[in-house]
Amino acid sequence: ATAPPQGFNTALNRYEMRLPVAASYRYVKAVNVGLNDIAQVLVTELIVLELVSETSENGLQFVSHQLDSRLGHQFNERWQGAADMSLQIDENPGRGGDRSRGSLGARISFEPDQKWVHTGRWEMSSQWNEEADDVAENVLGYSLFYDPLETLRSSFSLTDRLTWLAGARSRHRLGSAVEGNADLLRGLLATLGLSASRSEDFAGDRKYTTWSARARIQAALTDDLDLVLDGSYLESLETIEDELRKRRDAGIGLDWRVTRDLYVRVSLRQTSEVSDRGTIDALLSWAVLPSLRLSVQHYELTDDDLTTTLRRSANLDWELGARTNIYLRVAEVDLSGGGGDRTTSFQQGFRMGF
What we know:
17-stranded antiparallel beta sheet; about 0% helix
């Protein structure tokens, strides 16, 4: 059987095809012909979903009841508090069964002056399922905001989360984060953040410890020149009984609009776990003319110093009108490092919209 032409869903990065149930299939072949937005199609995964046939029965399928309430009170200029309550009951005669969710929370805030703000919160939530185990969660949190200057801002947060499954403790997580923002110059913003967490899975006898750091500089010094430079580092430890697993992830990225017509983006990332994996993603875009744009992209994926994926492409787009353009694309994909093939594609076309 042959499916009708399908458009590529760029948002979900996939094709969706509906095929008749009566037909049998031995293989699936993707053919790319004509004028397409995608220069090359590489099928890496197939997911088969069976659609439930429609019935002529007209009965009650789903009913939901929801109740929300909130009460807030300002005690004085420095103290204020609030309480929240919500309840939702879902009646589902189908396979999932009925389920209900409820939560109760409280928040109190203390602002001694314009520089300091303290906030504490508590929330208890539960979910009752007819055909599954009940889940309950208790959350305690504290946050602090400190702005000593108009150009200097900081925050700190601490959260404790405990989860029960079928009345027994299931997971516990304790996490904290601190962040600072500074306006170094007019149009120059610097951000530094640190976070750490420790969690324990009682059912699986696992423990996780994670900490991360990130920094970001954003510059908008002129109307044409803007630059964003960010870096991050994450390290996590997973303990399963007596076995210890460590994972490190580091990355740095640059988004730089050099001029009104020239834009550069570079991203480097390195991940170390069972093996060392690295990615390089670089893009150069140049508006040669107001209606003519040239872009070049390089993407490389390595695994233990072996390049498994290498992709290079060049695009030229010429806008003839508001809805008319001519495009030219050349791409090279090399998957030989991972046992695949090396292909080169050339695509040109004319696109007109109505």
